[in-house]
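Example 9 (inverse folding). The structure is encoded as follows.
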């Protein structure tokens, strides 16, 4: 057994473990093994010779237990605060495992959540190709107009036999979400222009434009996020927009049937709000699964996330338009809500609402389907689908429940939870891409 350094907390751990016992960081295989320079086979990190060709391998570096005084050059204990020979102050010792664990306290929730998701999905996402940090960093990167045009052609010109890339040409590391920010900035600018027309120029004919840009912007941008991260590029944009437009209409029909059967459902207390979650997530889930089953090109987890996001995005956009019309215009004197207030509130919270909840349902359905199988309604009986579906229902219900917390704080926390789960499924889908490449190479 050899000792290696965890790249996250920098503590020494055994080369035989898959995750750091101090901080839980998953250790890449290349840190735990070495490659034979002669035949290229993978060998144990502490192996003295290759088990395949017998080539002698380099011995692992010994664990350093001392440090050298920079003043007099004498060797001193690693935890010494000053040199015993010349008294020169030495560097502080590295933090102990307990300190490292204490430093990572803020990440414990995320780690325990990922562990639970591994048990639910029966999978292991492994490497995180898309993280919260990447979501933020990818947007502000400068791009030339010519580059943007080429990249837009690459993203939107997809789904045909000529534009769907081969699996061998796809790389999960290249997944990015810059187009999400591009669409967001476009709709923010459009909403600002319409706002000026309505409020400064008193042009009432611009009110429908303000409602359109404000209500559809954030949900559509979130849908595009799932569209661009789906590197398989097998579902063309026109099909996604079909799901976007048709999904909301039929979801609302099923939803109204549900509210007719359960008239006691409504926002406020927890039980009635959970019933809202059951009705609406069931309605969107049924339409999402119908689309997945009918779409022959939907074969992977990322495809399911995309179709679910399309249905949820249109549902949320239409709901926002209805709120603006009824509570911001027709009944504003009774409710006290203004169009501006509803637009800003719904725009800020939209990423954690319907588009996220339904994307989770679509992704979970494809996890159950697995490789090469046929999409069937029987998949909904699997715990791998039911648990994420119940999670979406519960988050939706708590979202609509009146709690002794500021609404922005409560719903902001729920948004963080649902997107932590979604990032897990996105990375699981990107890992599936690697597995699909290996299977394709074997079959070839």
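The amino acid assigned to each position is listed next.
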């Amino acid at each position: 057994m050899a000792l290696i350094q965890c790249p996250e907390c920098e503590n020494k751990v055994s080369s035989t473990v898959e995750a750091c016992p101090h901080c839980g960081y998953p250790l890449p295989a290349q840190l735990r093994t070495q490659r034979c320079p002669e035949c290229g086979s993978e060998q144990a990190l502490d192996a003295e010779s290759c088990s395949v060709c017998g080539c002698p391998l380099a011995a692992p570096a010994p664990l350093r237990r001392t440090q050298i005084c920079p003043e007099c050059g004498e060797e001193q204990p690693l935890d010494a605060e000053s040199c015993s020979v010349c008294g020169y102050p030495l560097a502080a010792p590295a933090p102990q495992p307990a300190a490292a664990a204490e430093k990572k306290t803020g990440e414990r929730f995320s780690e325990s959540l990922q562990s639970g998701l591994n048990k639910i999905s029966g999978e292991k996402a492994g490497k995180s190709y898309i993280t919260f940090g990447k979501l933020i960093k990818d947007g502000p990167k400068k791009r030339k107009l010519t580059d943007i045009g080429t990249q837009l052609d690459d993203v939107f010109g997809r789904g045909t036999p000529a534009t769907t890339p081969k699996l061998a040409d796809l790389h999960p590391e290249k997944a990015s979400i810059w187009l999400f920010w591009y669409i967001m900035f476009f709709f923010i600018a459009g909403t600002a222009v319409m706002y000026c027309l309505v409020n400064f120029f008193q042009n009432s004919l611009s009110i429908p434009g303000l409602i359109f840009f404000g209500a559809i912007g954030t949900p559509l941008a979130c849908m595009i996020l799932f569209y661009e991260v789906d590197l398989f590029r097998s579902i063309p944009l026109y099909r996604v927009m079909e799901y976007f437009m048709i999904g909301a209409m039929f979801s609302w029909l099923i939803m109204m049937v549900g509210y007719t059967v359960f008239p006691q459902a409504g926002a406020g207390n927890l039980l009635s709000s959970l019933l809202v979650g059951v009705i609406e997530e069931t309605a969107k889930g049924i339409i999402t699964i119908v689309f997945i089953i009918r779409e022959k090109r939907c074969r992977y987890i990322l495809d399911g996330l995309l179709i679910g996001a399309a249905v949820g995005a249109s549902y949320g956009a239409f709901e926002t338009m209805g709120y603006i019309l009824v509570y911001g215009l027709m009944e504003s004197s009774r409710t006290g809500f203004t169009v501006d207030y509803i637009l800003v509130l719904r725009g800020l919270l939209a990423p954690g609402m319907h588009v996220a909840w339904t994307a989770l349902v679509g992704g979970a359905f494809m996890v159950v389907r697995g490789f090469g199988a046929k999409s069937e309604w029987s998949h909904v009986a699997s715990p791998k689908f039911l648990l994420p579906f119940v999670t979406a229902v519960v988050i939706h219900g708590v979202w609509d429940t009146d709690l002794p917390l500021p609404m922005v704080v409560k719903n902001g926390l729920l948004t963080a939870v649902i997107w932590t789960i979604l990032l897990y499924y996105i990375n699981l889908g990107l890992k599936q891409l690697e597995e699909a490449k290996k299977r394709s190479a074997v079959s070839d």
